[in-house]
Fold this protein.
Amino acid sequence: MHVLTRIGLIGGTGKEGQGLALRFVAAGYTVMIGSRDADRARDIVAGLQDRAVGGALEGDSNAEVVAACDVNVLSVPFAHAASTLDGLRSAFRPGSLLIDVTVPVSFGGGAVRYADVAEGSAAEQVRRHLPEGVGLAGAFKTVPAYLLGKSDRPLDCDTFVCGDSPESRRRAIEVLEPLEGLRTVDVGDLESARALERMTVLLININRHYKIHDGRFRILGLDAGTG
Ligand SMILES: NC(=O)c1ccc[n+]([C@@H]2O[C@H](COP(=O)([O-])OP(=O)(O)OC[C@H]3O[C@@H](n4cnc5c(N)ncnc54)[C@H](OP(=O)(O)O)[C@@H]3O)[C@@H](O)[C@H]2O)c1
């Protein structure tokens, strides 16, 4: 039994959010899918219900979700992350944790590129738009939505976890540990997101070059470590 049982997904109606919802439900959590439109969230939940085995799945507006959860995941396109967080500012529970999965990517002229962010990374910009009493971790940045959505397949990969404090990273790792086949790798403070988010772009380009959808990262040698 998890200490925490309820996880909210801001923008959980998208590809990444739906995949995450299935994986968290499979780990026994109650997952609330959030949307700008509560009815849309409930429609998405209805469509996922057959595949949502383990915990429970609910849908509501982003604001209701954030107000109801001690852990939320931000899964909107990066271009809308700041405005989304500004709009939800008063809804966040003090002491709650936000897990940021956003990656600033530009698609233009057939190429996929990292879209530079003034703060250095999406995660660092997200930090600026969160209330002070809400902790922030970055995770799942390099885990493709395609793989998350294939809920009958093991994830069989690492996710890198950075955060604004050791406590935020510890909490995020505790939340992610029950996800089957996913290993967490603590990569330190939020500045690590500058590398992680660029690794996502690399991964998208690898997937495109080899015409696959589920390329992912695994760090070798960690099992011998003591971190
Ligand atoms: N796709 C991947 O493989 C992948 C991998 C790693 C990380 N990520 C990151 O995960 C995040 C979500 O990716 P995705 O592919 O799921 O994105 P998406 O499908 O394009 O969008 C996710 C959700 O964001 C909400 N949204 C769209 N425009 C918005 C706006 N103007 N303001 C507020 N909310 C808006 C929508 O929900 P409502 O209309 O219901 O509100 C939408 O369903 C992105 O930041 C992406 O970089 C994606």
Residues 42 and 58 are 7 Å apart (CA to CA). The chain has a mean pLDDT of 96. The radius of gyration is 16 Å.
